[in-house]
Design a protein that fits this description.
Number of domains: 2
Helix content: 40-55%
Structural class: alpha+beta
Order of helices and strands: EEHHHH
Distance between the termini: 32 Å
Largest sheet: 2 strands, antiparallel
């Protein structure tokens, strides 16, 4: 039997459904996270736009997401700046 689950976040965003499986809860949370991301105001300095993508292509990766995954798997192989760029790419560009 399903039970009533309610997930609330800022601005009264509510997902309320009879839940038969935890998958529905996860889908609801993903929906809320996507809505929150759309409202984020992320400003990247003009001089830094495309920096990680250029680094990724120069180093033989097919795209920035594959580069970000590789860098985050072995952080010690890369500089601190590259790891920071990869982390940002993974959190904001690759997880959509």
């Amino acid at each position: 039997m399903g039970e009533e689950k309610v997930v609330r976040v800022k601005q009264n965003t509510v997902c309320s459904k009879k839940i038969k499986a935890s998958l529905k809860v996860v889908e609801c949370i993903i929906k809320i996270v996507k809505m929150a991301r759309e409202k984020l105001d992320i400003n990247i300095k003009e001089k830094n736009k495309g920096k990680f993508t250029a680094w990724a292509k120069k180093n033989g990766f097919k795209d920035s997401c594959s580069a970000a995954n590789a860098v985050m798997k072995s952080k010690k192989k890369y500089s601190t700046g590259v790891v920071k760029m990869a982390n940002f790419a993974k959190n904001f560009a690759c997880s959509r």
